[in-house]
UniProtKB/TrEMBL annotation:
Protein name: Glucokinase
EC number(s) given by UniProt: 2.7.1.2
Organism of origin: Roseibium denhamense
Residue positions binding ATP: 17-22
Leader peptide range in chain numbering: none
Amino acid sequence: MSMLKTHQKFSYPVLVADIGGTNARFALVDSPSSPTRMCGKTATADHSGISDAIRSVLHSGSGTKPRTAIIAVAGPVSGDVIPLTNAAWVIEPLKMISGLQLEQVIVLNDFEAQALALPGYQGSDIEQIGQGTARPDSTKFVLGPGTGLGAAAMIRAASTWVPVPGEGGHVELGPVTAEDYEIWPHIEFYGGRLGAEQLLSGTGLPRLAHGVANWMQRDSQLDTPASVTMAAEDNDPVAVKTLEVFARSLGRVAGDFALTVFARGGVYLTGGVTPRIDPFLTDGNFRKAFEAKAPHNALMAKIPTFIVRHPDPALEGLASFARAPEEFAVELAGRQWSGAAAALSG
């Protein structure tokens, strides 16, 4: 018995949208064989809601009228009214259908979209860190230190790609090296614990920097993620040590997930923090921590790790789904709305 795939046929053109806390990005997929056609990016604060933003972006672009919309949002998707985690917009698919004359709207989790992009990466879309070779048609994992720490698996099972988002960014993060054990008592805990996101994110960087400064017995005014990364560029000792601890801790968490889902297809790093700490991810310490999983060091050495260089990974993931929904087992129950439902609600 084979796994049930998404036997879904979309009406084209399909509008795909990645709605973040600050910006919304849009693209069009004109047909199953068409490349992704970027429409533009706009600040969420500049528009009253998603429908207004879509009208603005499409009006200033090609004027193409989409028939389907597939949207990625941060946070859970439940019910017909979906508030965004970090923006004032509220997504109401039935109102979008009637207001924009769409046939259907689908709303997915943002890291589900990131996972959907993984099988299609090629060439300059990704940059490998260290050794290892991705096995074809094998499970992959994406980890994204941004405002928070997003995580999702792309499981390969029964000749099908199965995206599995979750709250992996909140797994436990404890000390391992002798230096870790010295630093950890100086870090402010959250809710009596240190989850990975409490350190490995933009919001976590200042928490880690304060702990490192206390351990080094130095004054520090590194109160924002940008101040940490900029100070590291100037060789500030607290900032440099902070990013060293950050990178090896990220490598350790990435290795944990690789073992958890046996990610022989590789582990991929996205998120807004990643491109700002390149030297600390590529100097060998991230990879060393990733592989240090005795008794499975030899196995870990074979699993590759990558930095995602694609400028719009979530959009590209949604576009991949839009082009070939039959390749993915995406659960649409409660996350898909049709024009018929909109007519009934009206």
